[in-house]
């Protein structure tokens, strides 16, 4: 029998995000977010879905915590909706919103599930977007005020903080590709947004140190390992461009205090228009306690002279793919973890998201037989174990996602959860086979191959 047993203090968790699960978008004084506005504009989301109700977690959080406990989770990663706390993004505090998260934290701690709290998972207050959003440097100041409020109000209950989730997606999917809120197609805007997000991250870390709170603070980046399609010099150059765009534009400022030169040269025209102050990099590169990694797939690229970024991404034909058309490549997780530990940090690493969407079907007997998800998870968890065995300081794994939810531009058409949400039957929760599999894995702290 082969065993893949993890360290005794390993964090086994699952992750969610506020807009994707909470619903209650106008309740108890919550302000409008950019995602409320974006989804209410027809044509932006598959089937014109919105997060107005989502999984109704705002009203059913106690039931969801019971399910977390049943699964054996020892940690839960969730995000706080900024406009639920500060409806205008600044100024007046909505106590009812604050009380909701205090109740959620109480419920988690009561059953000994440690919270990992993300302070920004994309739902910017619409009032701030109307003042320029993340392109406006003032938003950095307002975010810092919000963060400081959260430290004061929730600091005694939260052992681990993530100010930002996937700033790449916020900057480029929202402001360059127009796939996400607020829906712009402007490279200069995206670069300014990326810089301001990184600056606000650094200020959040600085503020955390000054607060004297116990606990840890890090950041969660969506990262992938980039492979050249061939060993040719041009394909290797394509790999370097893709790696700089996907990974290094955020890794390098945090860990090395500078942006990657290969993109600084490419972005020269845009950089002449944006606001970067001399001391910004000192703030951005504040030392963090851990790095969170969201990994779903790899990138395989070849050189493309006609592309602005000098590469095109390929879809290997012999590979398996998820319902998102993302290649299943667990070896990429191992290679990424090794690379991060070698090139960037000896600090603890956490896999803060990993999972897959498949076309799950609820059977007549009320079951969801998602063997393909179990297979996906098993392979990636084995890759994570191999990284630990080879010296990577990986300290936890958070499955994406605890439950099916609003999958951004795809609405409810894609299911990532290990808990099935029956949207047509009052958001009924049903444990999929993958949930029972994960429950067993946590109970034995790993995998045992017969």
From TrEMBL:
Substrate binds at residues 20, 121, 165, 296, 400, 407-408. It comes from the Bacteria. GO terms for molecular function: beta-glucosidase activity. Its EC number is 3.2.1.21. One of its GO terms (cellular component) is cytosol. Keywords: Carbohydrate metabolism, Cellulose degradation, Glycosidase, Hydrolase, Polysaccharide degradation. SUPFAM superfamilies: (Trans)glycosidases. One of its GO terms (biological process) is cellulose catabolic process. It catalyses: Hydrolysis of terminal, non-reducing beta-D-glucosyl residues with release of beta-D-glucose. It is an enzyme of class 3 (hydrolase). It holds the Pfam family Glyco_hydro_1. The active site is at residues 166, 353. Transmembrane segments: none annotated. Belongs to the glycosyl hydrolase 1 family. This is Beta-glucosidase. It comes from Iocasia fonsfrigidae.
